[in-house]
Amino acid sequence: MNTQRDGRLAGKVALITGGSSGIGRACALRYAQEGADIVIADRDTARGFEAVAEVRSSSNCRALFVEMDVAEEASIEAMVAEAVKTFGQIDTVVAAAGISSASYVSGAPAADDVPAKARHLINMPVSNWQRVLDVNLTGVMLTDRVVARHMIEQNIHGTIVNVASSAARLALPGAADYCVSKAGVAMLTQVLAMELLAHCIRVNAIGPGFIETPMTEAMRERPESHAAMIERTPMGRLGTPMEMANTALYLACDESSYTTGHTLYPNGGMFVG
Predict the structure, then answer these.
(1) Is 261 within 8 Å of 204 (Cβ atoms)?
(2) Catalytic positions, please?
(3) Angle between helices 22-33 and 241-252 (to 10 degrees)
(4) C-alpha 137: how far from its chain's center?
(5) What are the start-end ranges of the E strands in 188-269?
(6) For residue 34, which of 126, 137, 225, 249 sits 20 to 30 Å off, Cα-Cα?
(7) CA distance 15 to 24
(8) Inter-residue contact 39 to 96 (CB < 8 Å)
(9) E strands, 5-150, where?
(10) What is the full per-residue pLDDT of the chain (273 aa) written as tens digits?
(11) What are phi and psi of 99, to 5 degrees?
């Protein structure tokens, strides 16, 4: 346990997949500000260690980086084992690892534009579809259940926060794999919340809109794409990773103690109700 007494997550251990950048990294920093020890799990080793250093320099909490791949169950099991070995337990998890397309690599230069129709379902290679679902949906499911098994074994009344997307409720031509995977995360959150009620484990999700992260970087660099994102967002701006982290924090702490099975959509008013 850490020695920090203040904060809404004081004495807790938080595991964050996809924690080296974007929303995941913001969650790591925000949770540490609230007193949690942090486990950052990601494929990107260099940025993972950078994120750990940032957590340590901005708080007096402990931080650990674990290299892992959410598409591999054995890798997730090893990640959880390493976190428990180091900190003794896991109290809350943010399943933030995800990709926008089969070719997406966070931090890498954007690939050349692919014509929109080439990304339509009737033209999409099944392998591309499967890759996105493996990471965005199955990866979240595997993360959730491996951590939940640990919580049940140690009788931890924990919290799980999945990162879905507003694309779970918006049909975006050329992004069927992404939309379907995120809609699956929203339903996974509901079902798992019901299954884990008896163990006092709460499961919720956030569904971000357009956020200033590496995933939207290529779109933000193209004036027409950036304008389209702004046009879809009634608030007239993109969200920030820290705004998403604040939403995730609410779902992770006792302030949301009567909430489970919900997806909150911090998206600047893209849709309501």
Answers:
(1) yes
(2) 178
(3) 50
(4) 11
(5) 202-206, 263-264
(6) 137
(7) 10
(8) no
(9) 13-17, 37-42, 63-67, 92-95
(10) 444 458 999 999 999 999 999 999 999 999 999 999 999 999 999 999 999 999 999 999 999 999 999 999 999 999 999 999 999 999 999 999 999 999 887 755 555 456 778 889 999 999 999 999 999 999 999 999 999 999 999 999 999 999 999 999 999 999 999 999 999 999 999 999 999 999 999 999 999 999 999 888 888 989 998 999 999 999 999 999 999 999 999 999 999 999 999 999 999 999 986
(11) -135, 155
Beta strands per DSSP E along the chain: 13-17, 37-42, 63-67, 92-95, 159-163, 202-206, 263-264
Burial group, residue 138, by CB count within 10 angstroms (0-12, 13-18, 19+): middle
Q: Tokens representing 69?
A: 């791949």
Tokens matching residue 43: 């494929």
The rounded distance, in Å, linking the Cα atoms of 40 and 60 is 16
Q: Could you tell me which residues come within 8 angstroms of residue 109 by beta carbon, excluding any fewer than 6 positions away?
A: none
Q: In whole angstroms, how far apart are CA 209 and each of 69, 213, 238?
A: 25, 11, 8
**Strands 92-95 and 63-67, bridge-based pairing:** unpaired
Q: Count the neighbouring beta carbons within 10 Å of the beta carbon of residue 75.
A: 18
**Per-residue DSSP letter, 239:** B
How far apart are the C-alpha atoms of 25 and 58, rounded to whole Å?
Answer: 13
Which residues are CB-neighbours of 246 under 8 A, at least 6 positions away? 30
Around Cβ 5, how many Cβ atoms within 10 Å? 8
Cβ atoms of 207 and 264 closer than 8 Å: yes
